[in-house]
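Action item from last week, closing it out:
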Amino acid sequence: MTTLVTTGDGNTPLSPEELADLIPNLATKEELNEWERENILRGREWAASERTSSVDVISDQYIRKLHQKMFSETWKWAGQYRHTEKNIGVPVHQIRERLVALFGDAHYWIQNNTYSVDEIAVRLHHRLVFTHPFPNGNGRHARLIADALVMKLGRPVFTWGSATLVEQGEARKRYLETIKAADDGDIQPLLNFARS
């Protein structure tokens, strides 16, 4: 089993069993970040080339497949919903129910032009992060889902603060603050940050 520490500000702690499912032999958080970044780039390429509609993006099958593409060379549990409780996210037994409700809401928002395309994608992103369906990688996955959705709906991908949000820094701090504001019912800071 690895002794790699994955905790930090805004990071989800992994259980010993989840950490044991690390595929490569890595010793530091920096090595893990770099390894995951390469894996995520392949996931991003898949999302950009995948011939799907916006309806397909907002589905259980797509979000699990994208997570699998993003982390399949890093974690054995890539693409599988979590089985352990975390310091954030809904209880494990609520994950599928919350996602079904989210997919229904997002389809409704699109069909009825309830919000702008950007706001639909940002709301989808926020609720995915809030639900926290996977053991790890939820923020990166939710941002890529939002990017895939806006692309399918004819808009450019988001800039997400024009900085890496994985490493500690001002951009990550601002991102986490906007997530907290959305948790408290104010989506506007996250919507602004997505295009900053």
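Closing note: The chain has one domain: 26-194.
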